[in-house]
Amino acid sequence: MKNPYKFVVQHGKNQVEHRVVMENYLGRKLKTEEVVHHINGNYRDNRIENLRVMSNSEHAKLHKKDPEIETIICAYCGAEVQKRASELRYKRKKGITRFYCNKVCAGRHKYEIGINRPPTNKTDPNMDFIIETGLQKGFSGYMIAKLYGWNKRTVYTHIEKLSFDRVW
Question: Is residue 1 part of a domain?
Fold first, then answer.
């Protein structure tokens, strides 16, 4: 990629022209923490009216982009909620397809569909019911195992016993 800045040779060294112009205008060397900002965004326009000295932090704030926002609908209450797109992309990549407006809605929804809390032991008499309900609600065997802290192999054994098709 071509460097967008103009360079000049000063004291035998290549220098970016906008810093040299600003140093000549101020009559002093710029500090290392000072940045010369191009007001109109054209890096080759080094007129003094287009240049402004600022700190690194001021310059970073000036160029900071607002995060992308995406509107989702809560899977439990139907409320519209705005979330950062990067957070939603991360969750989708992990296989999460249901989104909630808060933890309360998430907990209530999981309780209603039968995925409310992990059993106290692996021989829970409700295990078959929980697995069957979870599969009917669209959860994979892997997700059910993860939610309850069960071994994935145990869940798949129960799925086979219930004569469901294997759901990975």
Answer: no
Domain that holds residue 74: 66-112
CA distances from 10 to 21, 27, 32, 48, 52 (A): 11, 15, 17, 18, 21
Own/partner contacts of 6-9, CB < 8 Å, gap of 24 or more, are: 6/43, 6/44, 6/46
Longest Cα separation, the chain:
84
The model's pLDDT over 63-109, given as tens digits with 9 standing for 90+, comes to: 887 778 889 988 888 889 998 888 888 888 888 888 888 888 888 88
Query: Residue 20 in contact with residue 10, Cβ under 8 Å?
Result: yes
Model-level pTM?
0.42
